[in-house]
Write a structure and sequence with these properties.
There is one protein chain. This protein is mainly α. The chain has helices spanning 3-32, 37-63, 70-83, 96-123, 136-160. The chain is elongated, with a radius of gyration of 18 Å.
Length: 168
């Protein structure tokens, strides 16, 4: 394996592991929001899309002669679990701040994923033999995910930090 292939493998493994941790975070957020629009969006659309995207990254890894890194997956999953220890204003329960922080993490993950698709798109050359296919569909889906998550984030901010009417 040449140096470029090795580096591409590491890059794809990093994104695969981050995607798995992101899916775990999205599942937790969906479970904590089953009674609202956010929970339905995460459960019905976002999480299935994450699975499809991770399968695509695993396929890319196979085309470069590798596979997911169980060590990286475990490390990022452990990081996601440690992230649950973040103070949220409540000792044992989910709080409105939890929702805000989780959405910010999911937004950051989608933004990183957008960079992945842009990188793969830059490497994709339809006129040459190239193991990385066109990712336009994934790129467009990430943009839609970002818009939807940002909308939910603003709603979560308004719920977590309601403003008092100013005295006139």
């Amino acid at each position: 394996m040449n140096d470029a292939s090795k580096l591409l493998t590491i890059y794809l493994q990093d994104h695969d592991a981050a995607s798995e941790a992101g899916e775990a975070l999205a599942r937790r957020c969906a479970t904590s929001n089953t009674e609202n629009e956010l929970g339905r969006y995460l459960h019905d659309e976002f999480i299935p899309q994450l699975r499809t995207e991770r399968e695509t990254v695993v396929e890319f890894l196979a085309t470069v002669g590798s596979g997911p890194s169980s060590v990286k997956r475990a490390a990022l999953r452990a990081g996601e679990l440690v992230g649950r220890l973040k103070a949220n204003g409540r000792i044992r329960s989910y709080s409105p701040l939890s929702r805000v922080i989780e959405l910010e993490a999911l937004i950051a993950g989608v933004q990183a994923k957008q960079r992945l698709w842009a990188a793969i798109d830059a490497l994709h050359q339809p006129d040459q033999t190239n193991p990385l296919p066109d990712v336009t569909e994934h790129r467009d889906r990430a943009e839609a995910q970002l818009v939807e998550l940002q909308r939910h984030h603003l709603d979560a901010v308004r719920l977590a930090f309601p403003t008092e009417p100013k005295d006139q």
